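A further point concerns the way the authors explain their paired sequence and structure data. For illustration, here is how one protein appears when written out as sequence plus structure tokens:
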Amino acid sequence: MRNNEDVFRNHFSAIAAGPGGVARLREMLLELAFRGKLVPQLESEQSGTPSKTAITGPFALPSGWRWTTLRNCTKTWKQKIPDRPFTYIDVASIDNVRGRVGTDLKIIEPTDAPSRARKIVKEGTVIFSTVRPYLKNVAIIEREYQPEPIVSTAFSVLHPLENINARFLFHYLRSSPLMEYVSAEMTGMAYPAITDRKLLEAPIPVPPLAEQHRIVEKVDRLMALCDDLESRQQAERESRRRLRMASLAALEEAAAAEAAERAWAHVAGEFGRLVDTVEDVIAIRQTILRLAVWGSLSQKWRREKPNKFLEGWRAVTLDDVATCRLGKMLDRIKNQGTLTPYLRNVNVRWFDFDLSDIKEIRVTENERNEFSLQNGDVLICEGGEPGRCAIWKGSEIEYIFQKAIHRVRVGDNLLPEWLCFCLKDAADSGRLSDQFTGSTIKHFTGVSLKQFRFLLPPIREQHHIIEMINALMAFCDGLEAGIRARDAALEAFAVAACRAVLGWPATAATPAAVAGKITGQQRLPV
């Protein structure tokens, strides 16, 4: 028999490097275990279950294994209404990442007992949450509790019979074969669940007891490797996050042009360590906008330009430099005129429009003129995601806009791109939310929009900053595309590696070596 553990170890790092890699490793371990491919079978070991309880399962098993049901290899304990203090275990008590009962359990008096506190468990019992079972709230009662433990009726209580190892049962209840069965049998939309009866009908592969012990020992050992790898990955991500935050903070806080240039050079030099995920690129984008709208991005340009070009930055409200209004109220009963397509806030994305789903409404000629759109109009969401905005670039089709959207027409001293960048920075920083009304459904009213304050540089500097922003954002777009392509390649490699470990036919050619990091070869423009 091929040593699948060695194959697993050979592919360990490659699989772990991809998106969700450690979770995939854990799933693959259990897949190997319950297909009989993790440890060798020994001829001296006897069958794990009597033939009279055998059933036909979803896949072939090694010699000496049998398919049976959970009902045939477990038992339950009685239920009771608590009549004395008890240790209560509910679904929230389970650490579903590690599959353990938490340590912060409540001791409850019988008079305060929740109506769900009914099921008796004992040491060695496995509990499985039948509500939202895909969350894998599964655990073993690993010790005796004082006072006695009682669990919620949200759990199915499965106490293994003599020929079943409790940890073997526990691992199986968290494996893909069992989850596939549960997904097919659970019902309900808001609270999907599986009944105890249906769960007990689930098939389970049972090897000889001695082999169960060997499987559990190896699964536990390899799961510990996964835990260690996951901890190291989290530490690496946290280290990169702190380095990125410190580097970008230094960049934002640089008051003089020379300090800003040094900070840019530092960020560029450390770029391979700062950026490894799409979330990292998002943070870079947000910093670029923040530097831009507060004047730091163009310090070098201002220093090099003759003073005659500079009129200085000033704080303004939108009402000082633009006109704005809400769109047409939608009332299909009262509306008259010609059917005309209109824009809703769902059509307005950040810096772009999604015109794939356009509705129509009747408008009169006067309304068409009043709610028309021109090149350069900035459309801003009043609700939904208040403040989200894009610049209208014109269209062969004539559109109007509904009341959930503000139309802003800028004056001579304001570029529409500058307004959009200021709004995005205010949204990213959380400052914009101070302008919203409503406690649950937020609105960016016309009054608040007119009072939106931002810094306005001279028009010549606006042009220069926008050029810089566009160049840097294009760089970020390429960087994000590269990260997504790398992650897709790692995902394909991980799938191919998993199939190789499991001994399944390849579905596609295994990708060539994939770079695991974004390196300093990709340089941030300085």
User: Anything to note?
Assistant: The radius of gyration is 31 Å. The longest strand covers residues 155-160.
